[in-house]
Amino acid sequence: MSRRIVDANQTPRDSDKHLVRHLYDLYQLKQQNCLSDNYYIVLDRVLEKEQEMFGTGNFDRMRTKVTSALHHLRTDKKWEEHWQFFLEQMVYQSEKPSFEQAVIAVEELNCI
How many domains does one find in the chain? Predict the structure, then answer.
């Protein structure tokens, strides 16, 4: 998700608006305490695979990309607009998390 969010600012795609579904999923998993230590093992593997597939450099550079993605989420209003659209179309519960709540949850999961 972080790679695509950063790339979306350089090469926008129609599908970018759907990336916020990952925020929602992570928010819900965190809220329901469904993530174990295995989450971090999988996260490390995904980051390693991204390094191999996309030549994103070392781990510090990957961390920078994650930080950059979170910065884009917070500063580019299009992501919050995508979030609102997603909630309207795909979430049927009455209590819907705010965009800010979702971003904070992802920050906490990534220890940023």
Answer: 1
d(CA 14, CA 110): 27
Higher pLDDT, 39 or 87: 87
Closest CA to 100 of 36, 1, 87, 32: 87
Picking from 17, 7, 15, 27, the residue whose alpha carbon sits closest to that of residue 98 is 27
* Alpha-carbon span 39 to 107, nearest angstrom: 14
C-alpha closest to that of 105 among 4, 33, 5: 33
Segments forming the whole domain that contains residue 58: 2-109
Distance between CA 105 and CA 101 in Å, rounded? 6
pLDDT at 61: 67
Kindly state the DSSP code that residue 14 receives in the 8-state scheme. Answer: G
pLDDT in tens, 57-83: 666 666 777 788 889 899 999 999 999
pTM for the complete prediction? Answer: 0.80
In whole angstroms, how far apart are CA 53 and each of 1, 19, 38, 56, 107? 14, 20, 22, 8, 24
